[in-house]
Queue: 4 jobs
Job 1
Amino acid sequence: MEKVPFFHALTLDEDACIGCSHCMKACPTEALRVRDGKAQLNPDRCIDCGNCFKVCPTKAIYIKQDDFDSIFNFACRVALVPSVFMGQFPNDITVSRIYQILKEIGFTHVIETEATVPIYTQAKNNYAAEHPDIRPLISTFCPAIVRLIQVKFPGLVENLIPIKAPIDLTAMYIRRKLEQQEDWNPEDVGIFYITPCAAKIAAVKSPVGEEKSLVDGVINMDSLFNRVFKRIKEQGKGFHEQKLPVSQLAADGVLTSLTNGERRLSNAKHSYSIDEIHNVIEFLEKVENDEIEDVDFLELRACDQSCPGGILTCDNRFLICERIFARARKIADRERKGEQTKDHEVESERNYLSRHVKVGEIRPRSMLVLDEDITQALEKMRRINELRAKLPQRDCGVCGAPTCDALARDIVMGEANLNDCIFHPKNNNS
Amino acid sequence: MHFEYQVYEADFVNAGAASSAIKKTLKQLNINPQIIKRVVVALYEAEVNAIAHAYGGTIYADIEADKIIVKVVDTGPGIPDIEWAMKEGNSTASPEVRNMGFGAGMGLPNIRKNVDRLDVQSTVGVGTTVEMEVHFN
């Protein structure tokens, strides 16, 4: 089991927390408890999905990010922008104009994360062909899903496709290009990812299967949106924009971060794309039991509508999806007319990227194990079952645990007391 | 640790409930995930057998420090030729059951592949008892 402590982007502000327990009820991995009137996050269980952030009424849960000004620690400042960022803006704001504003506010280079999607897709399809014995293969595109499988479905860890996600591939590509073609010193290049969610931050700060991330910093999408949109407002309606060259994304690339974005490019005969964390958990329970036969590939995303539903996006997810579709349709139209080829600038580095596309071993880190020693674990389970019979099974949450079962477990693990249950007479200690 | 689950004839909707419950337990015991998988796959097959081909039955599971022993006891109709039923592709399932995606004749062979010990006792007209054992180490 992996034992390294995990960085979490989700952080609790104790002063703002009113102990309401909304977050505790929303957490899909039961990582939250309310103790002494304040929420507490168990770092071993948290997968950075952000469900708690969404429901917190006092904004006591916030997302750590790098200070925007930290980009100026580097002479060469790259904005690594997922195409979902472009979907935050009204249709009349062009991609080129967003690039231009990003450069005005401080970046020297802008590249879209999905630039390396053709290489990413090929690497996944190759891996599938090389490993016919592992089915279903599960995409590692969404970092919250990778962490979910590590903590809750350890038996499926070996089904994860150990291929770098587009964020890392594109960071690798741009760094090489800047160093080789523009002669930048490696230490002068800072790559900043614009994130739609907390999970990507955690993936950058403590990557799974890698020693160190290829990305130097993370900026939250909502805060950057405000900076860019302010500039758009200042420029006013009559603003005449200068056309800048933008990343030559293929329509396939633009669609990758949407639900079905990977599945439609997969060679797999039988595949599913499933979004929203509870849907994913429900499905993985069945996969783990081998109840679903003949599945070759699973595209799983933690957020409803995938990245447009990320907790740091700035508009309704369905509107964002439609804008991204509209952009993809335009590009596909140009591709059909032969005005734009599906080949991309990254093609020149295809060999280099393909050689470095794999990540190291992804290890399970089960949150469920009661004890390393099975005899002890059995004894603890016996006590948990005993306690369950004493608890009212109303899952009211007043004790500070999300369910009666969770309280029983907490008591046996020494983290809670039977007196915490309001339905239990105080003198009736076990 | 002892568990008992009832399964009912033709209750396909709930097929997998017992295997899921056992899986949930095993995951808390620091048992190798690949071994858990074998237990769950074998148990799911046995569970479906009792639902699809027998008149329902009872699943008894005993978890010890080094192994799990599962006994699935149904109340009929019984298997006339166990050796025949153990071969891949052989099945006595009705067309209705096959239409639901069950009854491909992979049940018992698949169980055998996944367990360390398998013992099938059957009397036609009385019932079948499938006992299986998986070692944790």
Job 2
Amino acid sequence: MAEAEESPGDPGTASPRPLFAGLSDISISQDIPVEGEITIPMRSRIREFDSSTLNESVRNTIMRDLKAVGKKFMHVLYPRKSNTLLRDWDLWGPLILCVTLALMLQRDSADSEKDGGPQFAEVFVIVWFGAVTITLNSKLLGGNISFFQSLCVLGYCILPLTVAMLICRLVLLADPGPVNFMVRLFVVIVMFAWSIVASTAFLADSQPPNRRALAVYPVFLFYFVISWMILTFTPQ
Amino acid sequence: MAAVDDLQFEEFGNAATSLTANPDATTVNIEDPGETPKHQPGSPRGSGREEDDELLGNDDSDKTELLAGQKKSSPFWTFEYYQTFFDVDTYQVFDRIKGSLLPIPGKNFVRLYIRSNPDLYGPFWICATLVFAIAISGNLSNFLIHLGEKTYHYVPEFRKVSIAATIIYAYAWLVPLALWGFLMWRNSKVMNIVSYSFLEIVCVYGYSLFIYIPTAILWIIPQKAVRWILVMIALGISGSLLTMTFWPAVREDNRRVALATIVTIVLLHMLLSVGCLAYFFDAPEMDHLPTTTATPNQTVAAAKSS
């Protein structure tokens, strides 16, 4: 027979009692609430939300997406440590930016000399495959960011460089010369630094701390190559 | 009455007892390496593993042996398998790069720095940086050489980036493949040869290309003598790195075969650097030519007008 050396709530009794014998004497006092309800209070509202986006006008849908994209542009232009870009990622912004950049960077197809600037497809491929490679690299190094979140951040942080491209295009309408080049160089360098700072602010936290430099260097190379393409753009 | 023995927890912490209960189980233990499944996919380690550890007298050869066996246990179609090739920290990559820049005679790069942890991060990103360094430097150098000419119109020469990428990546992957195949073949004939795994050879080649990045940037200087001195320095450093890595591997072999292998390795390396210099960078004497072609036009125009 089992003998308990000491039973709970009964220190120092001489008589041995079997284990758990006192359990039936325990009663739950009434002031500990042990009952409740399991409901999801938001449930009915979510269902209403779903059906309402189906019936709304096309303008509302487009405006909502455009506002989300615009909000993320603001986050890139004023990079703070927020995770709006990460939480509500979308790829519309990167697509718009990449298409704009590629359209402005492509060389004139009527003047297709052998060694000119990049074609539309080349810019597109560099941007998207570069972003995919950097994402794969950071995941392989052990980062805990998801694939599309990383693509989203890298795509959105091309915004300063697209602005630089627009400015360079405008500056190139003036007379060519060293002053022209200096202005473009300055603008591209500033926007390059801005892109790096913005993307590092979003991406650096997701890496293990002893590999942060390894994950950030490819981002630096990526934006450097894009800046080089912008700087060396010459209208035919 | 309940027996106390029935209520005791079963101890799971001891691998030995659970293995005696079930000998085929795979146990994972934090302190010691556990049993890993023997049917690993063909990671080309080869039978040379024990021999090279004995030959080169590494004092933590036990640890590297066991760690090497423990590492690649995921099947090759999972993501974790490829993550094992990126298992390096920042300081390790910097150490490997420093080791490739300062080859010390007698120190084997693979044994000293790679230590059974070959990574693909270094080779891949060093090659990517080198591709863009060569293309951008070549473009800049051509621009500076032809700067004063009236007939010169600057073009970004974007096509050269894809050509450079093809050349560099083909060199960094196909030459190690050929070398690994050759070493495996000799290993089957001469039993004492130290053989490296394919990834270690890729790793050595990748890190040996690092010296060409500052070399490519310095090739912008449009002086022929400076460029050739840079070629010699870079070839000296990376060639000696490769030689010191592969000499222990072919030392046991027939003298002529060993020498031929080393000479081929260095020759291919030289071919890469000289080829890149010749293709991407215009010769600096070209700026003299357009002034001589300009003057005949002027004389013809003067003759026509008179």
Job 3
Amino acid sequence: MKKYLSFFQLRFAMGLQYRTAALAGIITQFAWGGMQVMMYRAFYHTDAAAFPMTLSATASYIWLQQAFLAFFAVWMMENEIFDSIVNGNIAYELCRPVSIYNMWAARSIASRLARAVLRCFPILIVAAFIPQPYGIGTPASLLHFLLFVLSLILGLAVTVTFCLLIYVLAFFTISPQGLRMVFTSCVEFFSGAVIPLPFFPDKIRSIMDLLPFASMQNTALRIYSASIGTDEIRRAIGLQVFWLVVLTAAGKLLCRLAEKRIIVQGG
Amino acid sequence: MITMEHVCKSYRIAKRNAGFAEACKALFHREHEIIHALNDVSFTIHDGEMVGYIGPNGAGKSSTIKILSGILTPDSGTVLVDGRVPYKNRIDHVREIGVVFGQRSQLWWDVPVIDSFALLKDIYSISDICYRQSLEELTELLNLSELLRSPARQLSLGQRMRCEIAASLLHRPRILFLDEPTIGLDAVSKLAVRDFILRQNQTHKTTVILTTHDMQDIESLTSRILLIGKGQILLDGSLDDIRTGNKSIDATVAELYRTYNI
């Protein structure tokens, strides 16, 4: 366990050193979040009753989404992992007494956490001072807040295990390009990164809610502002745990399969 | 002890001729060729031996090293290293071996070399005392004291290679696989690396298996050579066995390749 922990530490420390990138990210996320809030404001002005969430809940959703972007953005994948598979440097990782799956997990969690830690606080603080209903509201209750934190962590874990599945699949496809393109666009759409899931038509939504993508950011962000019922919260968190287990099992299984038939590219 | 018996490994390689028309044709019908990288390879290496593994490009040297270090799974045959099957118990196996791939890097690019070493210490669960001793010894022998605090990306090839070798030896492996460790090194670094490998073998009784195209490496390091060509072991003996007259070692080996038509 200690080896994964020290690897985690190294990656975390490395992630913290990119300050300029973090600053640029914060600015981008403010601009993006602001734009979205203004867009929704225009919609709500037309007919507020037509929307499944209140404007202030939607604004909270957007700001939290921006603050924790690094937790859930599947497009932020570890290029070094893909590179090591494509150019064969994976050979060295296989020469170490570690499971590559766990190693990659430690690495992904570390870099996502480092990115989020650098970026979330300025966004959260500023968004808290934006006047209602355009800023981030207080959580619905203390219980909601605690459940939000739990679901946030589970969501991060689901996102990471999903990315790990893509890394492992890259062993089979030689080039990761196609995989990345297909999966990142799927995730963006189905996870509620483009439009929050409650805004989809009911029939489609009932299916979307069950997919692993809904267990990424959707659950946590909706719990915060209570735009999801108590029974539903229980079910959604259960679903997060379910997908976490399934994705981990699938990833580990595929990884073992890949290790057996590995070909080291580039001699 | 390392034994390989009747080991075969083949790769499937897509082939096509040059040109646009051929590329279009390959869209519908792709030709594959099966390359037998290893074809019934058998040998035994005893503890503390230093063996040079030579052969022309594409002969199967690296494939052998990768099978022995647990990265590749052979198609058939049995491999035993100190009683372990490398590709079945990869994690247990790699704890006991050290590997250097001359053309790749295992150091983390952005952090000082010493941080990479510290991480390896945790990865191999090396105790503090052992780590300090190994590090001191390696630093002195490979002359690393100036390099440890710089990031790996800012080292020259030779400097980096010395650090790579140290990184592979921190956990005191009983077997060391070196895949072209002197590639691209200047004369001074080459001599330092050779000298170091020799001492490692003498003082720690480390078994060393070395692949290289640099025949001076072979001449100064190994008493036994294995010649592989087209996936088969063609010769297992000492340098003196193959040397005729006063020819240089390069000429001797070139002639050897010619006799075996590889």
Job 4
Amino acid sequence: MNHRLVQWIWHVKGSLALAPGQTSDEVFARLDPLFRETGTTRQRDGSRLRFRKRDQAAQDRMAVFDGGELRVERGAEAPVLRYHLTSRALLFCFLAPLMFLVVARLTVIVGEYNKPTPAEIAAKEKREEAKAALPMSPIDTFLGAPAPEKPKKKDPKSKDDDDKPRPTAAYVFAGIFSVLYLVGRIGQARLVRRLFTARLSTL
Amino acid sequence: MDGVRVGKRVIGAQSPVTVGWENIPKVQGGPLRLFFFTWFQPTMLFALIAFWYYAPNSIAKASTAVGIGIGFKILLLGLEWLAPRHESWRLTWKELTVDLFYVSLGYTVLRLIEGFIGSDAVIEAVQTSFDWQKLAWFIGLPLLLQAFIISFVFDFGQYWMHRGMHNWYPLWVTHAPHHYITQLNVNKGAVGNPVELFLIGLGIGGLFDFLPRAALLAGSLGLAVGTYQHINVRFNSPRWWRFLFNTTEHHSVHHSRDFEASRSNYASTWVVIDRMFGTCVDGEAELLGMEGGRPMSIRETMVYPFADGWRTLKERLGRRSVMPAE
Ligand SMILES: [Zn+2]
């Protein structure tokens, strides 16, 4: 498979045009507060800055990234800032739906293995029936709450079995995390770009 | 920091905690806003109770409750977004994603494990062998009273389990990861090591058998009250509400970085249980977490009870072997 496409899953790359004459010292000085958060280590090497984030705080504006590299390069007319960031959160979110598909499959298998015996089902039905037959409190009758009704006898062959664990929740979460991934991959790339732009344009 | 004396304890000596209702800020804004944030909580509670009380049998089912629960949480997430209590508790994409991951475990993997080890089957067996006729008197009680008893007894068990977790190391290691959260948001209640959820589930609740409608009513108390433990929204909760029920304010004190403050407000729904046993502190805190607010990754959360338990065990055994034999 295309290596770059695989990388795109959790690598965020981009470039920003800088003002003509802006030096790397100036650029990194302006971006510096972003790398002064707790858990962040940075290493400046001329026109290159590398950083690593560990246990980043929830409100760290770059919390979603665990590390990366920023470079100031010479452009045709003005210098350019190129960045390459990596995010384990994005990778994790990408993989989560696959995990839920496995869980859905396992839920079905375990459900088959744990099927209640006919005797268990009968005992439970009997108990529910007896409970429903008990008189309701006169207060509830007066206030008009619906009386409990006797549970319908279930057709043992019917597929609509309430007791069986369903894989629905796992499928729903696979969907939720797919959407979250797309929102995150696109949104976080935009946010960090906006963050850099804002820092570089303030005086 | 001096802290404030509450009973025999000094609260807020290590990390800021606001003590006393009179010191807690109120919702600011126009009359409509004030009306909304004053009446939202009681209205929702009474609406849910009325709904479950009168819903026809065909609707009064667990699946409806799951749907209402999800809808209610989405509504609250919307409120958090529109009217955050603290900017420092803002929900970010990463926080939301991580929170939802823990929520999803509860709905999928933990159910799967429960099904596999058959803890449902155990409860069922206990219920079946138990002579329910002895509980017939309970089923004859008015529905709302039944619901109150279910909710209160369940919370009572949870109170002691939670208090035990804060006082006994083997239980604490399962609960500690939950205390590493640094902000309160709607889904933060699910964040923590899964072993803890099994322990909380061990409450006496599973051994009772009741009418489905009473259980649904009790559940709506948990939803319309317990959910506010973890939320980044400020409400002007009525006095009676704050007296009886746990609130964001109470629970933020419990999550404070201040050690003494964290040893209060253990109940989940009925904070009045804390009042009964002298562990209630009325107040709020913004700075939350452990170890000065160090966040805990998902991986560390999953292994923490075992890793920290092992580390402590080794330390203790090591110390013992150094000591001269007597
Ligand atoms: Zn706790």
